[in-house]
Design a protein that fits this description.
alpha+beta; four-stranded mixed sheet
Length: 125
């Protein structure tokens, strides 16, 4: 587990590069907000989380896998992650933030989701 990175993961680096290419000013790992979003676009009020499919139980093939060893521990851990994600999203929305989740598998398929790109471009106008 020591080798599992919590920041500057491959998906996060790809999102950061794309935000830079689009010329979108952003902050990384905003410790002043609930859940410490991976990226924050302050001017647009957008908090972006880059989620690993397995760690957050996405509905793709990778997120649906269940470990064979120490199964009870991992199932409980992932359930806690999902509960925390829902709580943090509620808190951010209550504070007026728009919350976006970018899934690892979607980044592999097509880069930054076009809906997110379009919204970011619109918010900068």
């Amino acid at each position: 587990m020591r080798a599992v990175k919590s920041r500057d993961t491959g998906p996060e680096v790809r999102v950061a590069q794309r935000l830079d290419e689009l010329g979108i000013a952003h902050r990384r790992d905003a410790a002043d907000l609930p859940g410490r979003p991976d990226f924050v676009v302050d001017g647009a009020g957008i908090a972006i989380f880059v989620h690993g499919c397995w760690w957050h139980a996405h509905d793709c093939h990778r997120g649906a896998r269940t470990p064979k060893s120490n199964r009870d521990y991992w199932v409980a851990k992932i359930q806690r992650n999902r509960r925390r994600d829902r709580r943090v999203t509620r808190e951010l929305r209550a504070a007026g933030w728009s919350v976006w989740v970018v899934w690892e598998c979607r980044l592999k398929q097509s880069g930054l989701p076009s809906r997110l790109e379009g919204t970011l471009r619109e918010s900068l106008r």
